[in-house]
Amino acid sequence: MSGTDRFMELQKTLTEINQKYTYFLMAAVGAAVGFSITQTSKAPLSWWFLPLAFALFLWGTSFVFGCVTLQLVVRMFNLSIAGLDMSAGRNPICKHDPAAIEIGVATLKKEFDKENARATLFQRWQFYLFILGVAFFIMWHIIEMWRRIPENMCLWV
After folding, report:
1. Where are the membrane-spanning stretches (predicted)?
2. CA torsion 15→21→27→28, rounded to 10°?
3. Concatenated DSSP letters of 108-136
């Protein structure tokens, strides 16, 4: 296996890992939302639920960021395919003109790098928003536990 083949195999593996990570976070968000709904299905609505509402908002935003990440990855694959077609002279605009191919490939690479930076940013924030949602859920849960303590019970004995 040549160095180029190894590089391509590593690149493919890295892409698969990133996609699985994005899907994992999206599934975790779905599980968190579902769990929070089962925990509150019979509870009357009150101001005490604001931390939970914020957690749900953060989880929803995290899910959307995961979707955007996947859309950007698809766009990056399309840009890669267009670059390969252009390099092989299969682009109807550039055809076999070396100067046009060089400019076209450079333009596509710049666009690819921009989309890659955006995908990385969205994936990073997908994780941060998920963790922040977990923190707000835990805060809400502690508040709910605190509210259930009987008034005549002493906590510091």
Report:
1. 21-41, 47-74, 125-143
2. -170
3. HHHHHHHHHHHHHHHHHHHHHHHHHHHHH
Instruction: Enter the tokens of residue 85.
Output: 């077609």
Question: What's the predicted TM-score (pTM) here?
Answer: 0.88
pLDDT digits (tens, 9 = 90+) for 23-58: 999 999 999 999 999 999 998 989 999 999 999 999
Q: What is the DSSP string of the chain?
A: --HHHHHHHHHHHHHHHHHHHHHHHHHHHHHHHHHHHHHHTTSPP-GGGHHHHHHHHHHHHHHHHHHHHHHHHHHHHHHHHHHHHHHTT--TTTTT-HHHHHHHHHHHHHHHHHHHHHHHHHHHHHHHHHHHHHHHHHHHHHHHHHHTS-TT--S--
Query: Tens digits of per-residue pLDDT, 65-92?
Result: 999 999 999 999 999 999 999 998 898 8
